[in-house]
Amino acid sequence: MSEFVIHVGSRTAQGVRPNNEDRYVVDLGQNLFLVADGMGGQERGEQASGMAADIIPKVVSDCLAAHDSAINAVLRAFLEANQAIVQAGLDQPRGRRMGTTAVLALHQENQVFVANLGDSRAYLMRDDQVKQLTVDHSVAQALVQSGALTPEEARNSPYQHVLHRFLGFAGTFENAEVVPFTPEVGDRLLLASDGLTNHITDDDLRVGVREFPNPQAWADYLVDLALERGSRDNVTVVVVAFERA
User: Fold this and answer.
1) Rounded-to-integer distance, Cα 142 and Cα 214, Å
2) Of all helices (H) and strands (E), which one includes residue 224?
3) Burial class (CB in 10 A: 0-12, 13-18, 19+), 7
4) Mean pLDDT of 28-32
5) Given 3.40.50.300, 1.10.10.10, 2.40.150.20, 3.60.40.10, which CATH number is that of 4-244?
6) Which end of the chain is less congested by CB atoms within 10 angstroms, N or C?
7) pTM here?
8) Tell me: the pLDDT tens digits for 43-84?
9) Residue 106: exposed, middle, or buried by beta-carbon count in 10 A (0-12, 13-18, 19+)?
10) Which of 81, 37, 38, 89 is nearest to 59 (CA)?
11) Is residue 41 packed enough to be buried (19+ CB in 10 Å), middle (13-18) or exposed (0-12)?
């Protein structure tokens, strides 16, 4: 018997945008959680994120049923989603791209496997500490890693939201890195689109764990807070709480 009971809170908000290109998945049947933030303009962004939300859980389920490893299942799911989105975007005008970010968490055999492409993020809150588990695949973040920009400069860079890895990339596809961790009682795992993470600090996350033991109440609060702070994007969050059984 698992030592955990998993409780989940989730919410998406359109905000001031004319439509919502974010999608999320809460699949407690296979303990799979996903946030996708579409790009490409209105129905194209919605289509891309919707395809990710449909394809990735199905491929993961099929791979696990065939006794593949969790890591291989996640990588295969991202690969197939990328191929499908590229194919769906072939009729776009030259220079336009149809794509989506994706951040996923899969809980299997007392491990959580986290993977992302793009700038949707995963955070782990444990023992009053906040750890970002994912790396943004933006040009600005790549310049930080190369030493060309400081983190502060990157936050104000015009390249902050220019992505070089995402689902729907038609060039040489570089798949996600899968980061595993062993969950502990009391952990909170947060998956979110950049419409939220651009307006929420580590201190907000640290304090929120203490003030909002109910993950749905915390998800609602975080979305409202991002909107109050001026987020002009769609805002989506999934909060996964590992509670004692």
Assistant:
1) 36
2) helix 215-228
3) middle
4) 96
5) 3.60.40.10
6) N
7) 0.93
8) 689 999 999 999 999 999 999 999 999 999 999 999 999 999
9) buried
10) 81
11) middle
